[in-house]
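Re: the request from the purification team.
They wanted to know what the chain is likely to look like in 3D before they choose a buffer screen. I agreed to run a prediction and write the result into the notebook, where they can find it.
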Amino acid sequence: MKQEIFVTKMKQAISDVFETMLFQAVQFPDNSLRIADRMHQMRREDFLSGATLAFEGSCPGIFYFLIPEQAMGEMTSNFLGIDLNEITVEQKRDVVKEALNMIGGKTLSHLEGGRFKLGLPALMDEDNPIDALLENPDAVHLLIEAEGSDFIAGFKLG
């Protein structure tokens, strides 16, 4: 399966999830230098939380989603419909995993002819490090601009 098709379908899924579930409009910057610069800046300046989601099937791989810590509260508040002051750390983590689960599921459902099985989303931590995925030359990274925050999502096939 071509990466370009996967990128197109993933962008569509991200837009759908952000707009319908998180109530945020998104944009995807085109300039690859800007994307690389912003990713490096985010890794230096922001505490990033994230999740991964493996999938099996005609084209196996892994999805990932990274979010700056300061954006997790608003995202969780929008998703759960509760006040920012009532949100727990566990709810924030669950929403990051669920957002990735929805993005991954929608991406795969938009692909024609493939049969896939999603795994369970897992938080990124010492055993599942962010840097290892971002530095992997086979991974495809997407910078997402949404309502004052930048996010990183992507995938690795194979």
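For the purification team: The first strand starts at residue 26 and ends at 27.
Please add any questions underneath this entry.
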